[in-house]
Amino acid sequence: MVALSGCALLGPPPLDGRVPEWRVGDTWQYRLTAQDLARGTTLHTSPVLTVLAAEGVAGAKPVYTVNVSTLEQGFQQTARFTVDDLNEMDGAVEIVRYDFPLSVGKRWTATREVMGGTSSGEATVTREARGVSVRAGSFDAFEIVARYRFLDADGNPRANLTVTTYFSPQVRNLVLEEQRDDDRGELVSRRELARYQI
User: Rounded to 5 degrees, what are φ and ψ at 84?
Assistant: First the structure.
């Protein structure tokens, strides 16, 4: 920061919370570590997301065709979705969805079917985080905290999760996401950006 005579200190400009525009060829590779608490095992995998096509607009949001693959298991799938659906791509119990434009203090709710049940909760943009460090570098990002309650098909409570996601306008995607099991007080998964090309 620079102090000019007669002027207040200037901080960094606010982050751009508008809907990011993806382009054909954009690629994000993540490092995912997930705990299977029932089995006491840890999974390490590297999901890769590559934009294959931009297909027009659904409402106010562009629709994309994306290839989702993993380096270790040879898994590959092509899916269509909008940018705010991007956390649902890998088929896991991913629960944070974005409500663009993002701004500090913004809240939204989400309910959806997941693995034989439903999840419901609220997400809040809590702050602009500066210098979030991951394998791919250091990025400024919106910190989004979501608290979800999972119910089985009969409506019985299954789990309570808090998911903290860091979405960086610079890379047009998340750079870090951590899921915590609130009932057990344990971190159950961590996904961080390992490399990207945009």
Answer: -70, -10
Beta strand segments in the chain, E: 27-36, 41-45, 47-58, 61-70, 76-82, 107-114, 117-134, 137-152, 157-168, 173-181, 186-197
Number of C-beta neighbours around residue 154 at 10 A: 7
Q: What is the pTM of this model?
A: 0.83
Is the dihedral angle over the CA atoms 77, 79, 84, 85 positive or is it negative? negative
The burial of 169, by beta-carbon neighbours within 10 Å (0-12 exposed, 13-18 middle, 19 or more buried), is given as middle
Read off the pLDDT of residues 134-145 as tens digits, 9 standing for 90 and up.
999 999 999 999
Q: Phi first, then psi: give them for residue 88, nearest 5 degrees.
A: -95, 0
Question: Mean pLDDT for the chain?
Answer: 81
Residue 69: the pLDDT is 83
Class of domain 27-197: mainly beta
